[in-house]
Write a structure and sequence with these properties.
With about 450 residues, this protein is mainly beta. Helix content is about 5%, strand content about 35%.
Length: about 450
Amino acid sequence: MNIKMRNVLAVIALMATVFISSCRKDDFDTPPAGGSDPGLIATTTIADLKAGYVAGNFDSIDTDIVISGVVIADDKSGNFYKTIVLQDSTGGIAIRIDISDYYTKYPIGRRVFVKCKGLWLGDYNELIQLGGYVDNSNPSQPSVEPIPYTLVDNYLFPGIYNLTVNPKLVTINQVLADPDFYQNTLIQLNQVEFADADTGKTYADMVLQQSSNLVVKNCSGGSIELRSSNFATFGGDNVPNGNGSLVSVFSVFGSDAQLYIRDVYDVAMDTTRCAGNPPPPGAGVNETFSSQTSGSDISLAGWSNTAVVGNRYWRAAVFSGDTYAQATAFGSSLPNMESWLITPAFDLATADTLTFRSSWGFFVHNGLSVWISTDYDGVNFASATWTQLTCTLAVQADGQYVWIPSGNVPLTAFSGNSAHIGFKYSGDGTTNTTTWRIDDVIVK
């Protein structure tokens, strides 16, 4: 790879093309299913692209290099601004683009190919970035600037949708020990919580209208910062005060390690804190799944999506504008499949009635059942006690895609301070392949 510094005239030429390039706007509310790749082939990996870079240098790329990766962070929630984060099997990179609401074209889970020739590789305080040109207006602090919006289509080529990037399960110590390796990749920390001093705060400072850094710690004394923008849709939400898991994009700012969540669904902290104080259960549950992305595994704050047998999870789907959760063994080679979608904890003293809707597709078996637990801690599924509930579920005679109300399912017979509801799907890839759907889960 031949990467070298170009004359500043290259920057001027790039900017001049902004005024002679034609504009194109691609609008759609819901990403089409599947999509297709553009016929490009990645010629190098993200790790190899970054391998020779030295912090503080700004290198122009003048060879025909193509990388590809899956979008792991977009701007839908507002926590990422004009920066798209791609990850392949070797690493991740941030690409600056001068487009707002780009999640409509480059949503999380979509593969994107990038023609790198003509772009610049630089860093923002050691966070490596690709951009359109270098701003040298402040010679002591040059910066890689976004690709002008009229030129983005010359460099970024979207491909298929609904690809899953599983976060790397790591510890705080691991990412702090090798920040270059984890930079701009999706990671998951388990058994972590917000510091005591931050549990009463919101993700961002909405009073002063500024971003906030909050401390996330484990029970061994390790800690790392979570940074959230005041422009994020969740900026005014209170952080949870329990212990659990955190999925985030790992970033750096100089010597400081930072985490960025995509939305609150990345945070699931509803179990006992390190100090031994369990978080208070919620007053109830009211979930329509409308915040979920069709074709992606259900990921909601406080909810557990667990593959007990096999490797399939409950996923979001959309039909006639309605988003719901569904599970199916159809199209798999699994000899057995068991997947659970479990609600956050709720207070039995104030919420004692469950309602929801169910439906099926391509009926061959009864694979949906509903359960309750008063001792599930949000993490250790196998050690919890589950009791099956009696409720009305869709049956074959109801017909395909017909939503059937569960009726009022009483929970007053169960004692304890809190409880979780679990929706269990069981099947296999050979004969028991019915698709089962649930929606409008309410406990009040």
